[in-house]
Specification:
about 500 residues; alpha/beta; 8-stranded mixed beta barrel; 18 helices; 20 strands
Length: about 500
Amino acid sequence: MVSERHDCLPFVEPCGVPLWMMSARIEPSTPSGGASRAPADPNGPAGCDGPGVSDRADPLGAEHGADLHMPLRTRRRVPWHRTSNDRRVEQRFWSILCQCEIANFATLRRHLGRPRADALVLDVAQTIVGLCPDMRIVTAGRALVEFEFECSTPEAAAAEVEKLRKTFQSPLDLDGERYQLQMHFGVAAAPSGDRDDVRLTEAAESALEQARTDGKTIMLDLSRTDLAFDRLTLMRELPRAIANGEMFLQYQPKVHVRRQVIASAEALVRWQHPVRGLILPGDFISVAEQAGEIGALTIWALRQVIADQKILAADGHDMPLFINISGMLLADAGFVEETCKIISQNRDAKLGFEITETAVIRDPESAIRHLQMFADSGVTLAIDDYGAGLSSLAYLKQLPAKELKIDKMFVMQLTSSNRDPLIVRSTIDLAHALEMEVTAEGVETPSALALLSVMGCDMVQGFLISRPIAIDAFRAYLAQEGHLSATGGAHSSFVRPESFWKRA
């Protein structure tokens, strides 16, 4: 039996006739499980492909169509379509894609009930098309609408979206009652000649995510080449990069001030992109987290650190190597289980994990439990970037950590600030009272090193000692004669001349 569907909300053709005002007739499911659409009505509007105009006076019906009660998964997304003979479109040279989300959908659903709430996207679409009839529109979720149009400039597009935003600031009439819809708009703009549908959609999704956080309309311009758009490409390329060996590690040593030895080193992951060149972790770690690849990247780093630690031990430098653990992974039981399994298979490896206190605050119960599992496996735990986030003494005393790293923001101005020395000194005393060693990050001057030594800081890390270097250069650094010399003077042998780095 033929049924009428009004909930899938297809696009609006450039002729200005919204297809949700037409009757989309769907044939019964075929044996393969798909659905076949009835032929287009030859009496439909000129210049538009698709079904003809419905005979129904109210295109949405009293209840916006009976099929709105069907589960959301049955709704279809219809691909964008542009008629080739529309000269208005050809004259415009910016493609605009906007994702519009009902931010307070959950609240409205409690007031309206599920059936009526599921039709809210149709009300939103009707409002949008009423203001901007040239827009092509499609439902993308229970509370999400996508619409696309062309414009002469991104600024003109922003003005169109702003007009919609202001419209939704007024309550919307829903069956005789007025309700306030809180809307988020994420917009992506690209020159029509450089149009890439995948990038355009990903940019709109990224803009909407940022709009949720910032509470304002966000537009991303894909004609620019800054990192905001490179992130979308990096996200797609990251799994391949891990599999193809484009990742590598560099090590930055940490010097024990009183013992005057290199006590350990921090492993820092780098990406040698075949086209973009060297990509630093600040540019792709958040991408890995967003793409769900941070676990695979960390497991790769763990295995590589174990292999490198064995090489150093064979050279006579059996020191712990630390890797950074994302806060997202501390609540991932699967990651924790796999990590503990790898550690149990390499009992001789000396390993350390650096975690931020903010990561623990996200989910303290599971984070502390998993950190205790790491500690029981023999891993040394260090609290990284202490003081840079929301430091909490309540969590600090519960963590099974043996090392606390003072963030470089307090160390780099240690000799020129009145407050930073007080903060650093009190942090050192606090950590020692909790039986933790203290590492100062960002040590770049001999005067800062000297002051930290007087304060009782245990270890230092920074460009004064060494920049991050590859494993072979690190081995050469350790083998260099005199690396056990005193660290207190301005001519410390830990500071290498430029010729050393060129040889390494």
